[in-house]
Amino acid sequence: MKDLELPQYLFDVNGYLVIEDALSSEEVAVLNRLIDEQNLPPPEVSPRFGSAPTLGSSLLAAEDVPESKMKGDRMAPVGSGFLDWGKPFCDLLDHPAVMPVLRFRLGDAFRLDRLYGMYMRKGMSYGALHADYGATSKQSKVEPGEYYAFRSNQIYDGFIVVAWALSDAGGELGGFCCIPGSHKSNYRLPRQIDENFEQSPHVVIPEMPAGSVVLFTEALTHGTASWHAEHDRRALLYKYCVSHMAWTSKRVEMPSSVELTPRQQILFREPGDPLRHFASLFEEAVV
Ligand SMILES: O=C(O)CCC(=O)C(=O)O
Ligand SMILES: [Fe+2]
């Protein structure tokens, strides 16, 4: 636990943590090649790729959903997104670089809630600053356990995003941006920052060389800074939450083309009380 002292402190203080060199350049190249093979539409058409669960119920009529994709809820298409594109995408699910950090944020029992890839081309911008379950959340009455909280010397945090950089990003290039420490803010985001966030000195765009990974709490005020690089942005986002929580009623499905490890399979379980109705992801913990 000693070697986690610094990252734990920094993650708590800032609301995000960048780990560089989490992937080797070979691993990054393999993931990029597998994405290339998908012949995706250009980012201008769709800046997200490989999402799961796939579509919201309002976007898809029940009769359009293949029978194989139905899970009780006829209006709940699911799918595995980019996990079905190869084992290297599944290896990231419980990668050793991120599991200890997720553990001290989410405990021993957490689930994979959503995933998607993001890509951007020079000149593209995307969305506004936002904070799910933070002070700037549009849902003004966040529930206890969802809002970033620290009590009894323990972090109680609902959602963590793990975003893997598959191309150099950050700083002048653009990409993920945030207001450090804003997950603990109690006031709404001032309009001066919100309206012109890319120019704000309070918004940082962390350096993310290809192969690095950023973990951030959804309660952090964050967003996407315009992309200025000649190369495309490529990032893979895996969103995890404590086992008794879920963002939607839809679920990420286990991939059909890749065999998952027993630990990876736990991430796909239905929500349940940690360690009572949802198994530990860490062998040494009591189930
Ligand atoms: O990486 C980014 O551009 C931000 C993505 C984002 O806002 C999110 O995953 O919640
Ligand atoms: Fe976000």
Strand-residue proportion: 15-25%
The CATH class designation is Mainly Beta
Number of spatially distinct domains: 1
What is the alpha-carbon Rg in Å? 18 Å
Q: Helix and strand string, N-terminal first? A: HEHEHHEEEEEEHEEEH
Please report the total strand number as a whole number. 11
Termini distance? Answer: 21 Å
Q: Which of globular, elongated, flat, extended, rod-shaped describes the shape? A: globular
Contiguous uncertain segments of 5+ residues: 56-75, 139-146
Bound molecules: 2-oxoglutaric acid, fe (ii) ion
Could you list some keywords that capture this structure?
single chain, 287 residues, alpha+beta, Jelly Rolls, 6-stranded antiparallel beta sheet, 3-stranded antiparallel beta sheet, 6 helices, 11 strands, globular, binds 2-oxoglutaric acid, binds fe (ii) ion
Can you walk me through this structure?
- The protein has helices spanning about 5-15, 25-35, 85-90, 100-105, 190-195, 260-265; strands at about 15-20, 50, 110-120, 125-130, 150, 155, 160-165, 175-180, 215, 220-225, 235-240.
- The chain is α+β, with helices and mostly antiparallel strands and about 290 residues long.
- The chain has one domain: Jelly Rolls.
- The longest helix is centred in the N-terminal third of the chain and has 12 residues, at about 25-35.
- It is globular, with a radius of gyration of 18 Å.
- The structure holds 2-oxoglutaric acid (AKG) and fe (ii) ion.
- 2-oxoglutaric acid binds near residues 118, 163, 175, 176 and 223.
